[in-house]
């Protein structure tokens, strides 16, 4: 099997603030193969966007990549080791900032951001911005760059591209502006496009059109995508494989069908249960209890234990190992949960949290207690 196009290993990005160190990305590992569409999914605050920015080395102060390796087609985009005394050492193989600008960004890896109005300059015409981007990254003249720009606007479904070339960003709808950014990303024929929640600000009809467009373009150009999103519905529609992130860590990775039909991690199960579905009433949705803890002071052990309905005392004590739990005949399926480790999960007592039902008599039922007296919670009050 050929080497992955992109490999991320033990990536750590931290933000150094007056309150303390925010561990936004904390030991992330994943791969993207040539022509593959890989999802990076999780709630807001999970670290998805910071991970994407770290790949391109676009993290701004007070953030810093402190550890890890990012390899793209054999090139070391990131190769940093954190020494015991807290210093960050860059290897000689790691590309310089100039090499990143001239060899990688735009040419080999492009990025599409969530809000096109933040990416397009409102005082310059759309065509001029697209043409300049092509000139910088493809080393062609102005007339040839304009021809390519018009062709790409047509390719992404902009009507009358010759006329719209001279329009300003505010003269385009939200969906059309997002198409312009996709055209800009594709114009330099990159091998990988990082799409950072590109459909979040769009209505569902336009979102569907953009997803259809991306699927079509991916097949036509064989471009790999890393699709960052919080929407499991989008993941189900377009992704080949999925990485689920929680509080700076990847907690599950699998092919999209396996993730939905053979879910391993309780957090992934909770995400799926909280999804609106056309065959279910709104009252039957099961939102994830509580809020995500702060990355400045993550919980001990498994970071999801404070919100996990299956959490036990052992989950507070042991940090789970991220490893493949699939059989030899199956596609790889990796998960970070102590249920799949020999650390005494089954023999451990359930945690008393809102997620486990401790505050509504649920913990008593889990333990098999008669009156729920051990929890100090009234047995019938929650139902009355």
Give a quick precis of the structure.
With 384 residues, this protein is α/β, with parallel strands linked by helices. Helices cover 30% and strands 22% of the residues. The strands form two sheets. It has an eight-stranded mixed beta sheet, sandwiched between helices.
Number of strands: 13
Strand content: 15-25%
Rg, nearest Å:
23 Å
CATH-defined superfamily of the domain at 109-190: P-loop containing nucleotide triphosphate hydrolases
CATH architectural group of the domain at 109-190:
3-Layer(aba) Sandwich
Quaternary structure state of the chains depicted: single chain
Count of helical stretches:
13
Order of strands across the widest beta sheet?
7-8-9-3-10-11-13-12
**N- to C-terminal separation?**
60 Å
In which range does the helix fraction lie?
25-40%
Q: Categorize the overall geometry.
A: globular
The helix/strand series, from N terminus to C terminus, equals EEEHEEEHEHHHHHEHEHEEHHHEEH
Report the biggest beta sheet as strand number plus sense, adding barrel if it closes: 8 strands, mixed
Rounded mean pLDDT is: 87
> Stretches where pLDDT falls below 50 for ≥5 residues?
361-384
Class of secondary structure makeup: alpha/beta
What is the CATH C level class of the domain at 109-190, in words?
Alpha Beta
Here the CATH topology of the domain at 109-190 equals Rossmann fold
């Amino acid at each position: 099997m050929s080497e992955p196009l992109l490999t991320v290993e033990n990536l750590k990005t931290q933000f150094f603030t007056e309150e303390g160190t925010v561990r936004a990305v904390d030991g992330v590992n994943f791969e993207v193969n040539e022509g593959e569409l890989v999802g990076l999914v999780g709630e807001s605050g999970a670290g998805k966007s910071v991970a994407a920015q770290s790949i391109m080395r676009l993290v701004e102060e007070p953030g810093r990549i402190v550890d890890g390796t990012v390899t793209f087609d054999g090139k070391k985009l990131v190769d940093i080791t954190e020494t015991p005394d807290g210093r960050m050492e860059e290897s000689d193989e790691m590309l310089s900032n100039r090499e990143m600008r001239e060899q990688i960004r735009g040419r080999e890896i492009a990025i599409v951001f969530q809000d096109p109005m933040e990416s397009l300059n409102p005082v310059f015409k759309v065509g001029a911005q697209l043409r300049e981007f092509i000139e910088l990254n493809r080393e062609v003249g102005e007339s040839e760059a304009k021809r390519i720009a018009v062709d790409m606007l047509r390719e992404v479904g902009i009507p009358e591209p010759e006329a719209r070339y001279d329009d300003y960003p505010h003269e385009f709808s939200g969906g059309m502006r997002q198409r312009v950014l996709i055209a800009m990303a594709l114009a330099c024929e990159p091998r990988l496009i990082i799409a950072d929640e590109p459909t979040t600000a769009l209505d569902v009809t336009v979102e569907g059109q953009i997803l259809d467009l991306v699927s079509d373009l991916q097949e036509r150009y064989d471009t790999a995508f890393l699709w960052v999103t919080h929407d499991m519905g989008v993941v189900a529609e377009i992704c080949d494989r999925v990485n689920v992130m929680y509080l700076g860590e990847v907690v599950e990775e699998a092919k999209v069908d396996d993730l939905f039909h053979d879910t391993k991690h309780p957090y992934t199960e909770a995400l799926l249960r909280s999804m609106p579905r056309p065959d279910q009433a709104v009252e039957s949705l099961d939102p994830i209890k509580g809020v995500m803890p702060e990355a400045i002071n993550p919980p001990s052990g498994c970071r999801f234990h404070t919100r996990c309905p299956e959490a036990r005392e052992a989950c507070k004590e042991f940090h789970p190992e991220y490893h493949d739990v699939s059989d030899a005949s199956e596609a790889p399926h990796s998960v970070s949960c102590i249920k799949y480790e020999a650390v005494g999960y089954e023999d451990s007592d359930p945690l008393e949290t809102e997620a486990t039902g401790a505050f509504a008599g649920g913990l008593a039922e889990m333990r098999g207690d008669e009156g729920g007296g051990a929890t100090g919670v009234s047995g019938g009050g929650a139902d009355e």
